[in-house]
């Protein structure tokens, strides 16, 4: 049965409107980024002579190479270790069912609702005390800690559903918990681990509050954190500001387009997983 | 964690705070095993696996949280000796008009972060199902989701430019003959907060739409067919089948976006810093200001704790409300 035209037309119209709403601000940025530098253009007007080299200039002026390299260092510090710790803990809670594990789980659940703002001031003093203020390590360690609630939650959900017979069979063969974890369960968990890694990558890259508080040097912050300095620097040149901001957004948009299916699936699963 | 809410990126807020009794498993998962009796000896050794994660969480989340509680009873500038003041900071949070207004603003943002996106997303998702157009559905998924994956701070920059005097919003208004209402939106105390809120709508709309679309996909098709045979129109079907079938997904959308509204930081900090005046000040930005610019650590901590308590006070009843029967 075909949808009646009376629903079809308003339906398609509303959809197109929602889509236009979603990309309109990005289009407006793109139009502006292509205008001659130093001009004060209108928000939405395609330039007669698009200045594509504005992107090159913005790249150089904002030193995106350094910025991106530095953000990747943070990601490399946070994601592999964060995923490993969460996988081990998820295994303990979901598969080994350690005694008292539910206490840890409830504490972690608390962390899911806790706004970052509540820990940020004491965290600043704590990192200062540890002598890690303005170091990458001083940003990486708290990011791992803050990632734990969601990450453990995620891996626990996987291990709850992994068949226990596997561990039993492995222990018959004389494997200890560690061996059966490494040889049997880890390979099976790879899809969950990959999704978690992807989500953690996005969240680290986009992390703002921790980056601006714990790191003075914008070039060593996360990509999102670097934006804060960026605005002050370019408030005088709307064109370069827009070109630079687009460059900073671009990696996330590309990663999303590339891994779209996985990201959407992981995010949706992450939000309903219980 | 604070990424999926406005304040940090896609991870935070992604999960519901309490486990749903019977959440559908992700597609990549093995179906849950039927529970069967297990007799195992207590596996204390398993804690070796859990300890590192627990330690990181304890040191970088629980310890600062405890410190926050402690600070909240003191008057401290971060350098000199702190003096114990009892509940004075809390009294101040509930009596200082500026702090109170920031809390009120956070609740106001729920309209833009939650009510509008969830309502529109329900309509859009329902329509996509009705149209049964795979191509349109996929295109919508891609375009609508992009605002959700870029840094919220970047979204704030994009919209600051949209709202500027020469920006696209005013340009559009002029084109349709509404020149008289054009203004610098962030500069107008009456309009700045709704303008900031709309950025939240922009970010959350796609997430809610896609979550609800995937939820609709799980509703039994025969229900829709039966409705059609009974001659039910779009809105009747929507009310009788789609809405009840999406109960759990709606709950997730509401939970995540309400946390994002109450704990908003990135967007407001980048777009307006809480100004003009205090017209867009939210607790998140206020905590930052008190803690790092005004060096009133005790007051900042008290406000942050009140904010956390409010989040819990709103989220827990919501969880009950949307729990599947």
TrEMBL record, chain A:
It comes from the Bacteria. One of its GO terms (biological process) is transmembrane transport. The chain crosses the membrane at residues 69-91, 103-125, 137-155, 188-214, 239-259. The keyword DNA-binding does not apply. Keywords: Cell membrane, Membrane, Transmembrane, Transmembrane helix, Transport. Residues 68-259 form the ABC transmembrane type-1 domain. It holds the Pfam family BPD_transp_1. It is found in: Cell membrane. GO terms for cellular component: plasma membrane. Coiled coil: none annotated. It is a multi-pass membrane protein. Belongs to the binding-protein-dependent transport system permease family. This is Sugar ABC transporter permease. It comes from Kocuria turfanensis. The lineage of its organism: Bacteria, Bacillati, Actinomycetota, Actinomycetes, Micrococcales.
TrEMBL record, chain B:
Residues 103-316 form the ABC transmembrane type-1 domain. This is ABC transporter permease. Keywords: Cell membrane, Membrane, Transmembrane, Transmembrane helix, Transport. The lineage of its organism: Bacteria, Bacillati, Actinomycetota, Actinomycetes, Micrococcales. The keyword Cytoplasm does not apply. Belongs to the binding-protein-dependent transport system permease family. Residues 23-35 have a biased composition (Low complexity). InterPro entries: ABC_transporter_permease, MetI-like, MetI-like_sf. GO terms for biological process: transmembrane transport. It comes from the Bacteria. It holds the Pfam family BPD_transp_1. It is a multi-pass membrane protein. It is found in: Cell membrane. Its main location: membrane. Residues 1-11 have a biased composition (Gly residues). The chain crosses the membrane at residues 46-66, 103-128, 140-164, 191-213, 250-271, 297-318. GO terms for cellular component: plasma membrane. Residues 1-39 are annotated as: Disordered.
């Amino acid at each position: 049965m075909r949808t009646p035209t009376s629903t079809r037309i308003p339906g398609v119209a509303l959809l197109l409107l929602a889509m236009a709403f979603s990309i309109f601000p990005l289009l407006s940025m793109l139009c502006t980024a292509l205008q001659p530098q130093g001009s004060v253009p209108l928000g939405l007007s395609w330039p007669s002579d698009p200045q594509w080299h504005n992107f090159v200039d913005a790249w150089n002026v904002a030193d995106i190479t350094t910025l991106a390299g530095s953000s990747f260092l943070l990601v490399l510090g946070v994601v592999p270790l964060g995923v490993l710790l969460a996988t081990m803990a998820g295994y303990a809670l979901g598969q080994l069912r350690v005694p008292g594990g539910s206490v840890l789980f409830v504490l972690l659940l608390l962390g899911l609702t806790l706004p970052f703002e509540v820990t940020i001031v004491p965290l600043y003093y704590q990192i200062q005390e540890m002598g890690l203020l303005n170091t990458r390590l001083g940003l990486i360690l708290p990011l791992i800690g803050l990632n734990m609630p969601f990450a453990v939650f995620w891996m626990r959900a996987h291990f709850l559903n992994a068949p226990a017979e596997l561990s039993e069979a492995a222990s018959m063969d004389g494997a200890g918990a560690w061996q059966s974890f490494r040889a049997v369960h880890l390979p099976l968990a790879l899809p969950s681990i990959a999704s978690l890694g992807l989500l953690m990558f996005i969240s680290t890259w986009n992390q703002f509050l921790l980056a601006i508080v714990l790191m003075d040097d914008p070039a060593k912050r996360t990509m999102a954190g670097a934006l804060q300095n960026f605005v002050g620097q370019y408030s005088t040149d709307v064109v370069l500001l827009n070109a630079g901001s687009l460059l900073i957004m671009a990696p996330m948009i590309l990663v999303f387009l590339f891994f779209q299916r996985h990201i959407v699936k992981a995010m949706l699963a992450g939000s309903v997983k219980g | 964690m604070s990424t999926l809410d406005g304040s940090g990126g896609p991870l935070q807020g992604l999960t519901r705070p309490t486990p749903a009794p019977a959440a559908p498993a992700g597609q990549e998962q093995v179906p849950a095993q039927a529970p069967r009796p297990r007799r195992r000896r207590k596996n204390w050794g398993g804690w070796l696996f859990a300890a590192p994660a627990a330690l990181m969480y304890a040191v970088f989340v629980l310890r600062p949280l405890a410190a926050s509680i402690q600070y909240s009873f003191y008057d401290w500038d971060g350098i000199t000796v702190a003096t114990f003041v009892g509940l004075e900071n809390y009294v101040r949070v509930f009596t200082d008009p500026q702090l109170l207004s920031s809390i009120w603003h956070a609740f106001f943002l729920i309209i833009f972060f939650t009510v509008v996106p969830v309502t529109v997303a329900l309509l859009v998702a329902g329509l996509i199902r009705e149209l049964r157009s795979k191509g349109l559905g996929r295109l919508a998924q891609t375009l609508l989701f992009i605002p959700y994956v870029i840094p919220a701070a970047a979204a704030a920059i994009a919209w600051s430019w949209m709202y500027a005097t020469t920006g696209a919003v005013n340009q559009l208004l002029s084109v349709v003959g509404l020149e008289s209402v054009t203004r610098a939106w962030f500069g107008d105390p009456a309009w700045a907060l709704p303008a900031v809120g709309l950025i939240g709508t922009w970010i959350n709309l796609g997430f809610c739409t896609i979550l609800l679309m995937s939820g609709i996909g799980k509703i039994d098709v025969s229900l829709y067919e039966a409705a059609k045979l009974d001659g039910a129109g779009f809105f009747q079907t929507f009310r009788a089948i789609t809405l009840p079938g999406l109960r759990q997904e709606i709950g997730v959308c509401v939970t995540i976006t309400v946390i994002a509204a109450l704990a908003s930081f990135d967007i407001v900090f980048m777009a307006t810093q809480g100004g003009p005046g205090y017209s867009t000040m939210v607790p998140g930005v206020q905590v930052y200001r008190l803690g790092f610019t005004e060096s009133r650590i005790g007051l900042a901590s008290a406000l942050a704790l009140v904010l956390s308590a409010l989040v819990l006070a709103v989220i827990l009843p919501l969880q009950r409300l949307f729990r599947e029967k």
